[in-house]
Amino acid sequence: MYIRPGGKIPTNLSNLAFLVQPFSIHTIDSETLYAWHVLPIAKYAANQQALVSERTGSARSFENSVAFDLLSADPTSRLLIYCLFSGTSFWAPRLNFISPRALSSGASDKIHVLAIDYRGFGYSTGTPDEQGLVKDGVAAVRWAMDAAKIPPDRIILVGQSLGTAVAAAVAEHYVQESQVEFAGTVLVAAFSDLPTLLLTYSIGGIVPILSPLRPYPSLQRSFSRYLRDTWDTSNRVGNLVRMSRKVNLYLFHSRDDFEIPWKHSETLFYAAANATSSSSLSSKHIDGMKFQQDLQEGGIIESWNAGGMKKISKHVVRYGEIEKSRS
């Protein structure tokens, strides 16, 4: 589950080293996480000379840097806290296709990105497990709110694959523990829970892992008892929606995702929509009440709006493989 895929450092941006600022974040259980702050492209371009001069001069802590000031001193800045889709180093594999240009394209002078290496990966200390990775995500948010002074209504949690489970858990944690609600939670290629994922997962969309167990529920239950981590995102999404006064949840998936089938996002959509009601809603009822828009080649968008305060959106695109989505 916690694997380290390969990758290469992108070369499409000049002076990329000055765009990305590495630093450390400490968790509540005394682990040290290697973190990155990625500047918005336009903000970087406007301040490139100061950034380059600072990095080539005397060493300073990140919180006394130009990049930190550009994040914390701007009352209009927005922060995407990006939860990686595998327990791996953010730097080389991830920027290969999720570039700073793409992540900040909505507002190239406003949107900053914060990412971390989970414990046990890259230069981060510790050993990865479900509880620990959630603590890592909580630590990243705590740093954003306490050190950088970014209020939660300017923070969006973004997760992909495994990272969707972390993002959902962090969002649930904050609304449950301190009634903190973020501007949005975005889950890309999410899965409903780990036991179900393992029963539907295929390597490269060809080699099934545990799908032969699907006709045998007793064997499935027996196997599930041995799982240390369950990553029950379906339950967490329901809790998040249920306990929040206001919530914006966005689910993105592709029909050609053969590793994590898009039906997982559909399960999460139903769980979230059901949680907006005090009484149980059937999937048939939700299907009859949801808003649906067919974008043809662009896929299908389904939305559920509960009183204007709780908004759930699911966008299933026709094609979404990494190689096809680089542009």
Question: Which properties best describe this structure?
Answer:
327 residues; alpha/beta; ten-stranded mixed β-sheet; two-stranded antiparallel sheet
Walk me through this protein's architecture:
With 327 residues, this protein is an alpha/beta fold. Helices cover 35% and strands 21% of the residues. The chain contains 13 helices and twelve strands. The chain has a ten-stranded mixed β-sheet. β7 and β8 (207-208) form a beta hairpin. α7 (130-147) crosses α8 (162-178), α8 (162-178) packs parallel to α11 (233-243) and α11 (233-243) runs parallel beside α12. The model is unreliable at 1-14, 92-97 and 322-327 (pLDDT under 50).
Determine the strand fraction and express it as a percent band: 15-25%
Question: How is the biggest beta sheet arranged?
Answer: 10 strands, mixed
Count up the helices. 13
Which strands sit side by side, in order, in the main sheet? 1-2-4-3-5-6-9-12-11-10
Helix content range of the residues, please?
25-40%
Number of strands: 12
Using the alpha-carbon principal axes, give the shape. Answer: globular
Low-confidence stretches: 1-14, 92-97, 322-327
Rg, nearest Å: 20 Å
* SSE pattern, N- to C-terminal: HEEHHHEHHEHEHEHEEHHEHHEEE
What is the rounded distance between the termini? 28 Å
- Kindly name the structural category: alpha/beta
Mean pLDDT level: 83
